[in-house]
Amino acid sequence: MTTDEMLRLKGTHLAPYIQLATALIGKTREGGGNMFRHQLDTMATLVDYGYIDSVLLKGSIVHDLIEDIPGFNHNLLLSIDYESPAVYDLVLEVTRFPDENKPDFLNRILKNGSLYAKVLKVADRISNMISLGFVVNPEFISRYTEETVRYVFPIAEEVNKAMLTELRSLVDSRRKYVSVLG
Questions:
Q1: String of b and e for 51-78 (b: at least 16 CB within 10 Å)?
Q2: Cross-strand bridge partners of residue 20
Q3: Which helix H or strand E contains 7, and what residues bound it?
Q4: Which of 11, 22, 115, 127 has the greatest CB tally within 10 Å of its CB?
Q5: Prediction pTM value
Q6: The pLDDT of residue 104
Q7: Tell me: the pLDDT tens digits for 38-58?
Q8: Rounded distance, CA 98 to CA 101, Å?
Q9: Is the Cβ–Cβ distance between 67 and 4 less than 8 Å?
């Protein structure tokens, strides 16, 4: 990390967002663990790829709150700091709403999402694909893997070729795993 990048991060306060995301601790995942850790994994993926924008990092920490916590009080998110409205808007962009099927949701991000929404969705999918390594349901793995190829690869192709390379590798490994399960 360069000195300039460190200075850009210097005033970024993530703790209030992390605290808000603890509401996801009780939400389990198909591969085990909980949704809270997934939020942090998604943020770690962004940092791993060199993303340091404070709104993007904060959004990654709370990206599933609205979708996964019924009746979530969005005012809690909006009142954290001066960047909260931008974080909230980003979270809304990557939120799948109850009346929206998965293909429409992912196509909405591809066609109308901001750059940050697209980058966040790809980092989110990388985290999810890694978690698939702990899933033992071959139908779920196959469906999720093919969904990644069809809908998320084009997003990654547009925003970050290195992330696309990782997704391709994850898809290959999950396909091999499913073939072994037979």
A1: bbbbbbbbbbbbbbbbbbbeebeeeebe
A2: none
A3: helix 3-9
A4: 127
A5: 0.93
A6: 97
A7: 999 999 999 999 999 999 999
A8: 8
A9: no
Q: What secondary structure, in 3-state letters, does 86-97 show?
A: HHHHHHHHCCCC
* CATH 1.10.3210.10 describes domain 3-181: yes
Q: How far apart are CA 76 and CA 170, in angstroms?
A: 35
CB under 8 A, 24+ apart: contacts of 49-54: 49/123, 49/160, 49/162, 49/163, 51/119, 51/123, 52/1, 52/5, 52/8, 52/9, 53/116, 54/8, 54/9, 54/12, 54/83
- State both tokens at 145: 């893997």
CA–CA separation, 101 vs 151, rounded Å? 13
Phi then psi for residue 12, to 5 deg, are -80, 120
Whole-angstrom Cα Rg for the chain: 16
101-137 pLDDT per residue, tens? 999 999 999 999 999 999 999 999 999 999 988 888 8
Domain boundaries, the chain: 3-181
Which pLDDT tens digit goes with each residue over 143-154? 999 999 999 999
Cα–Cα dist 106/121, whole Å: 9
Helix (H) or strand (E) holding 59: helix 54-61
